[in-house]
Amino acid sequence: MTLFQTVKPAALTIFTAVSLSICGSVSAESGRSPAPAALTKLSVAKTITEHARKSRFPTKLQFEDVNGATQTGYVKYTFDESVHAEMADVYLRYQPDYACFVAIDVETGAILNLTSFIKSDEKWDNLVMRADYPAASVFKMVTAAAGIDLGKVSPESVIPFNGKSTTLYKSQVLRHKTTKWTRTPTFKESFAKSVNPVFARLGIDKIGAANLRSYAERFGFGAPLNSDFMLPVSQLGLSMEDKWEVAEAASGFTRDITLSPIHAAQMAATIANNGQLVTPYMVDSVVNGDGIVLYQADTAEQQSTQVVKPSTAKALRSLMNATTRIGSARKSFQGLNRYKVYHDMQIGGKTGSLTGESPRGRHDWFVGYAEKDGRQVAYASLIINKEKWYVRSAYVARQFIYHYFTEQMQAKAKEGAMQTAVAE
Fold first, then answer.
1. In terms of CATH, what superfamily is 2-25+35-423?
2. What ranges do the domains of the chain cover?
3. What is the pTM of this model?
4. pLDDT at site 210
5. How far apart are CA 397 and CA 379, in angstroms?
6. Phi and psi torsions of 164, nearest 5°
7. What is the pLDDT of residues 39-87, one digit of tens each?
8. How far apart are CA 104 and CA 178, in angstroms?
9. Once rounded to an integer, what is the mean pLDDT over residues 349-356?
10. Helices (H), strands (E): how many in the chain?
11. Which residues, including other chains, have CB under 8 Å from residue 151's CB and lie 6 or more apart?
12. For 373-407, b where at least 16 C-beta lie within 10 A, e where not — what string?
């Protein structure tokens, strides 16, 4: 059994108190310490990725600077260590065969949590850093975004279907006929309950292959992540040259569309951020031994790309919220009113389930967001079970939300108490 240890907090701050004015050699010409060559995001990414794929996040690393020279840097990561400890406890308690979890601050893109768990002694690279998991019904987020953004469907639209909601047969999609057994849910209900035939018909009849592919690319499929670490690309592995492949893609009923947990969390963060792209990053800064900053994360670039209209993002959040109230994640989120931390909180998500091969087993996704008092966080929870179910991915997400926002409430209460004390 292995647990992904993100970072040691003490190592993060050891160099922050060093006085820049008294450290380092002095230039004869200026009387000031010469500034070291800066590090680029690419040089940071190359170094960080090498270790992250092995589930290692050391705070002292060697980087190549812009001149090709080697610089020793001390890394401050964005991780929330207390939340990581809570997530590790959840996995140790329920013992799934494989599991991983990612959480992102929606406003900045900072990765707050990366946890990976393997029950056995099998040797795998860091599960969080992989991108070969079937996206399954998580891809319905893309289909819904395309349909709403193009004006082809609204949350209250009705697309009828016959048969089971979990199946996908050509008779349900290509040869649909309205009968006395036909069901007529709203699109919001179809999203919440992940109705495959509805999304297949939406993809074929209203969106089309070109638009579906275009929106998948907007959400990052087939493109590298421009961040301070390198991530394998999520693949849209269908040509969609015939209607049935469009149906499979639109409903997520295929293993040919793959997704990484980090990318999944990015998709949810973008929806929570009113449709503006959120780029995850894990390095806050890198300083040298003199405390001089070699690299600093730039969050200003976050608000640059509009993936979908703000109105579309708002509608998507209403669909995702319905998933936790009346849909496929309802059981995992029952009874929230008993806990103060959930009061006035908005929670949304999308489930997905499909058998995959790497690792082999039933892949269970829950991807979504939570917001309270202006604080927004997005997450992706993935559980892979070989045979027996130990815990649902949505319940793991619920545990994260509880611990994270409890921590935020406690910090806010502590800050208020300190301000009161100062005022007195």
1. DD-peptidase/beta-lactamase superfamily (3.40.710.10)
2. 2-25+35-423
3. 0.89
4. 97
5. 7
6. -80, 150
7. 999 999 999 999 999 999 999 999 999 999 999 999 999 999 988 999 9
8. 44
9. 96
10. 12, 12
11. none
12. eebbbbbbbbbbbeeeeebbbbbbbbbbbbbbbbe
